[in-house]
């Protein structure tokens, strides 16, 4: 929050929040980011991922298989968006999460959600459920397959034009603008 207070235009987000319900429940993540977005409208983004064993397993003793963590991540995205947009209390009974909740102080503007991950499954989920994809630890030349998977998924959604991938060490943005020094679309 100190960085947001001292700047006027920079968008800041948590990279990467594993909202898979092992250490943090998606509703807690929704509350935290809604509060930040209320204080700094239009300048907050959320990036979710499946977590890392060195963080989740060592602190909780739990480490579900990748398939379950992927399911938890996509369900968390849906639950977080529901919390940010619901007009009244809502019941959530999903495969991994149950909640009865209403967020009184909603973000004034939609908070973009990005998915972090290296493989084609997360790229697909980013295209289908999120606003962008962050390919952690890869350079742009490694994005060709995840980008295709992400584009295939986003084509199935209502607004596929909102999603765009760029390089620069795997940074991916939904804005469609090029990164500094980038000469062509990847």
UniProtKB/TrEMBL annotation:
Q: Where is the composition biased (Basic residues)?
A: 139-148
Pfam families attached here?
A: Bac_luciferase
Annotated region Disordered: the residues are 138-186
* Keywords linked to the UniProt accession: Oxidoreductase
Keyword flag Oxidoreductase: yes
Q: Where is the composition biased (Basic and acidic residues)?
A: 149-166
Q: Which GO terms describe its molecular function?
A: oxidoreductase activity, acting on paired donors, with incorporation or reduction of molecular oxygen
Q: Read off the InterPro entries from this record.
A: F420-G6PD/mer, Luciferase-like_dom, Luciferase-like_sf
Please state every residue range assigned to the domain named Luciferase-like: 2-163
The keyword Transmembrane helix appears for this protein: no
Question: Could you tell me what this protein is called?
Answer: Luciferase-like domain-containing protein
From which organism does this entry originate? marine sediment metagenome
Lineage of the species this protein comes from: unclassified sequences, metagenomes, ecological metagenomes
